[in-house]
Amino acid sequence: MKDPGYTIAVESAVLGGSCCLAKGTQIVDERRGSGGISRAEDLLGDIDELLKQNSVLPGQVTNFVVSAGPGSFTGIRIGIATALGFCAGLNTVPLQISLLDAMASICDGEGITMVAVPAGRGMAHALIAEITANSISYLSQPSAVALDQMSELARAAGSSRIAAFVGHFDESLFATFDKDVLLLPRSPAAALVSAAVDRRVTETRDPILISKTHTS
Fold first, then answer.
1. What is the rounded average pLDDT of the residues 66-95?
2. Which candidate in 32, 48, 94, 180 could, as Cys together with 18 as Cys, close a disulfide (CB 3.0–4.6 Å)?
3. What domain range is 22 assigned to?
4. For residues 3 and 154, which has the higher predicted lDDT (pLDDT)?
5. Position 215 pLDDT exceeds 90
6. Are 143 and 161 in a shared domain?
7. What is the tens place of the pLDDT at every residue in 88-131?
8. What is the 3-state secondary structure (H, E, C) of 29-57?
9. Is residue 215 part of a domain?
10. Over 60: is that where the pLDDT of 145 sits?
11. Looking at the structure, do residues 103 and 148 belong to the same domain, yes or no?
12. CA 65 to CA 146: how far, in whole Å?
């Protein structure tokens, strides 16, 4: 990711979505959970509002980071299409990053960790990674898993904890886990900003589209 200028980050495929404006890795302003972020007609308006309220011109934006998924198929496509359209006017290209990779990159500490986001209908999208200060090694592919099977899947992989964004799951679910729960306070968009400068994270060129009926 380029250093100078501002960064816009967008995650538009999970719950209400989130978008943020950053200078380096410092979050300047953000929008989250409005629902409109996952609608094409509103996402550009949210981005325009972020820029205007912070007196930033589009030409000052040198980086655009967008979630490659997983999440709503429509939301993923809206986010990527918006990023491509915005960047076309600036003669640059957006950086696509898996939201689950971004989550792994902001987890405190080290160890085998399940990272998960809600997928609706009693399901989550999750993967398991071994996180160290120098690398993130993936022990599973992103997949759909029933909420009541998350703890069992984590145990089978030797995971000591499950990480999720604050507010993404009902806290009563955590009482059913026999693992430590790591709640990530940042918004998904802010996590993408951090991941974009984390050398352990690589770009995800293809959207991550997972059927909710597929489990592993």
1. 93
2. 32
3. 6-97
4. 154
5. no
6. yes
7. 988 889 999 999 999 999 999 999 999 999 999 999 999 999 99
8. EEEECCCHHHCHHHHHHHHHHHHHHCCCC
9. no
10. yes
11. yes
12. 29
Q: Which two tokens stand for residue 187?
A: 């918004």
Examine the domain organization and report whether 175 and 128 are in the same domain: yes
How many domains is the chain built from? 2
C-alpha dist (Å) from residue 54 to 1, 13, 27, 31: 22, 25, 12, 13
**14 within a domain of the structure (yes/no):** yes
Tokens (6 digits) for 36: 């409109």
d(CA 178, CA 201): 29
Is the separation of the CB atoms in 184 and 117 below 8 Å?
no
Residues 138 and 153 in one domain: yes
Residue 122 placed within a domain: yes
**Predicted confidence (pLDDT) per residue in 1-40, tens digit:** 655 689 999 999 998 889 999 999 999 999 886 555 556 6
130 & 50 share domain: no
